[in-house]
Structure formats: structure tokens, C-alpha cells
């Protein structure tokens, strides 16, 4: 009976050790996934911030160009023409910029979740 109990204890210890090893590997993989996810999110935020700065610089340049044209206008019709052109350009530019930012935000969301999706798919298999 003592021998059977010893064998059972040994088997139990092996099972616990194997489970512990699997859990350790899974924890390590999960930590790697989280690290990749945060790295991708940070890169995405940097790209998004760079695009925001680029847009702000462009918009300031366009505004200063309009102000320059408006201050040298020799007649109300020149001023109205400059203002109309500026408004049309800003409308078109705003739409394009919004699309660029939306696409970048979507890309960032995909980047930051890709490691989790891959890990989940691998884990399910």
C-alpha cells in the first residue's frame, strides 16, 4: 500500500510539474503578446500625433497664405474671391484630413490588437 501511495504521489507530482511548466509558458507568451500590443499601440499613437502635427502645420500655412492675400486685396471682390477660394480649399482639405486620421486610427486599432488576435487563434488551435 505504501508503494502504491508513493507511486501515486510521484505521478501527481509529475502532473503538477507539467501543468506548472505549461502555465509558465502560457504566462510568458501572454506577457510577450501584451508587450507587442503596447509597443504597437505606442507606435500607432506616435504616427497619429505626427499626422496631427503635419495637419496643424499645413492648416496654419494655408491660413497665413489667405491672410496675406486678404490684406493685399485691392477691392472687395478680390477679398471675396480670396475668402471663397480659402473656404473651398479648407472644406476639401478638412474632408481629406478627416479621412486620413480615420484611416490612421483604424490602422492603429488593428496594429494594437493583431498580437492578441494571433495569440488567441494560436491558443485555440
Protein architecture, described:
With 125 residues, the protein is mostly helical. The protein has one domain. 95% of the residues lie in helices and 0% in strands. It is built from two helices and no strands. Helix 1 packs antiparallel against helix 2 (76-124). It starts with a helix and ends with a helix. The relative contact order is 0.11.
List descriptors.
mainly alpha
List the helices and strands and how they pair.
Elements: H1 2-71, H2 76-124
Number of domains: 1
Number of strands: 0
Shape annotation: rod-shaped
For the record, give the distance between the C-alpha atoms at the N and C termini, rounded to a whole number.
Answer: 42 Å
Low-confidence spans: pLDDT under 50, at least 5 residues?
A: none
Question: Kindly state the mean pLDDT as a whole number?
Answer: 84
Q: Structural class, judged by helices and strands?
A: mainly alpha
- Count every helix, treating DSSP H or I runs of 4 or more residues as helices: 2
Return Rg in Å. 30 Å
**What about the largest sheet?**
none
Bin the strand percentage: under 5%
Quick gist of this model?
This protein has 125 residues and is an all-alpha fold.
